[in-house]
Design brief:
Blueprint (H helix, E strand, L loop, with lengths): L2 H16 L5 H11 L4 H12 L3 H18 L5 H12 L4 H12 L3 H7 L16 H9 L1
Helix pairs in contact: 1-2, 2-4, 4-5, 5-7
Amino acid sequence: MTVRERFDRVIAQIESEIKKYKSAPEIAEKVANENAISERDLSTVILFFTGKTLLQYIKDRQINVSCERLQNSDKKAKEVIQDAIRISGLSDHPTFCKKFKKTFGMTPAEACAKKDYSLLAARLTWNGISNIEVSERMNE
């Protein structure tokens, strides 16, 4: 398996685990174990490519996936928000709303109504990382 394939597999696993309503530490542990790499080494790789630790990356993706869920659902806002809270890995409605508003500048209910997909950060992919970025980071 190439480095690229392994990297994409790790990111896909993180995305998959987020949708299973797991906490960021649970996701980090499971993905690291399934890829025979320590959480610390995996975090170093993610930090290199994103500027974020593994847990920060997972938490950011959780809140983004919850926003996607809010914007892509035809269910009532209250039902969707409950699902989004579970995906986000946050403990309760007030905590979720505070983090959501801090991240996106609007409440979850406003996001449900607005359907503004420009809010969402793109999922990390190997193709999304330019060779120039990697070269620059390696020379730092």
